[in-house]
């Protein structure tokens, strides 16, 4: 009830929830109370969560921030949300996001931008919460849920977490089932939690993760007791600091924060080593070929026949065209055009195939560093703090927005786990995050080490 009232009071201003489900929340909470009264119950019994609109929730608003899914009510539940409900969690509603998870500021949503609960000192300018999981991050930061689900294809969990002073982890590719999550770029997408503390994120991920016969890319590997890693010492842990992440034009504050993080680890008894990830600079351009290519293919299914919106035309082709023209927003159309171009005959080898080769090189860079004994890699999470809504510079050129993903996309390209932990405030009083990148399926080390920053 407290969360429902908080949503009622704050959501008009923040626009974090696109649908609130009070009846469902009360029913689930009641069932949870009954289980607890019988001495039963899971690890998330009665914990009220917000769900990113990208997750299919049975009979509940699931539109991926898009107009083209108007009125779509799934007849099935995503595996990740089903896992959460099986452990007793309670759904408060669905959270705003960039359309089809394409964006870094939550401004591409059909439902309008999410407003961050944060303000710069002495300013009243509305700031973005980051994206694409902007609703998830804002809702957690503003206390409109105890935790939220999110997804990350190129940074969409970690960047909004960094912008809002929350914790976000993208687990290893294959750790969570993608079944029932609207596909953006299938070889990069992963679900994960956004939470207030590293421990909360550990508890949530433990529940969300599972192998799943319905997703052949989910991996059959035991899910460790992540919360048990909380409080363990980092003495002797080897933390790598990659020199290639000192990108040109990086603000001094980010540089300072990174150094502060290094000092914290040294003080906690970890060993700091400089490492090299030589192909880092190719990650962003390669990502913006692979992700749109896969997206253009995944989005072909929205044709006015199977889901949501339909705009009639003179014939079936006319109907497809009118539906897609009216249903997709600008950024989604841009991605479909780029993706279709790089996959087309004659360009496939030059763009898509080449990007996939670059991806292998990026992955090998990480493998070499981990083979040399490094346990986790420390980098800034983002190249800046949150910017303003409708910021002229960020919106003047799509590439400016894409550059915000420079520290996060490498992790998706290599399929590795990455966590963003709030590390302090900039001179304007806005949150900044540090990122830790781990070995495949070693999220436990990220939780353990993440606590040092927190
Ligand atoms: N900002 C990136 C993009 O627009 C990443 C999005 C994501 O991780 N879903 O593609």
TrEMBL record:
The coiled-coil segments of this chain are none
Say if the entry is tagged with keyword Transcription.
no
Give the domain of life: Bacteria
Catalytic reactions on record: L-glutamyl-tRNA(Gln) + L-glutamine + ATP + H2O = L-glutaminyl-tRNA(Gln) + L-glutamate + ADP + phosphate + H(+)
Signal peptide start and end residues? none
Enzyme class at the top of the EC tree: ligase
Q: Which GO terms describe its biological process?
A: translation
Family matches, as Gene3D superfamilies: Amidase signature (AS) domain (3.90.1300.10)
Check the record and name the InterPro entries matching this protein. Answer: Amidase, Amidase_CS, Amidase_dom, AS_sf, GatA
A molecular function (GO) term: ATP binding
Query: What are the positions of the active site?
Result: 52, 132, 156
| Keyword Disulfide bond carried by entry | no
Pfam families named among the record's database cross-references:
Amidase
Question: In this protein, which residues make up the domain named Amidase?
Answer: 1-446
List the SUPFAM superfamilies. Answer: Amidase signature (AS) enzymes
Alphabetically list the UniProt keywords: ATP-binding, Ligase, Nucleotide-binding, Protein biosynthesis, Transferase
Q: Which family does it belong to?
A: Belongs to the amidase family. GatA subfamily.
Q: How does it assemble?
A: Heterotrimer of A, B and C subunits.
- Record's function text: Allows the formation of correctly charged Gln-tRNA(Gln) through the transamidation of misacylated Glu-tRNA(Gln) in organisms which lack glutaminyl-tRNA synthetase. The reaction takes place in the presence of glutamine and ATP through an activated gamma-phospho-Glu-tRNA(Gln).
Name the record gives this protein: Glutamyl-tRNA(Gln) amidotransferase subunit A
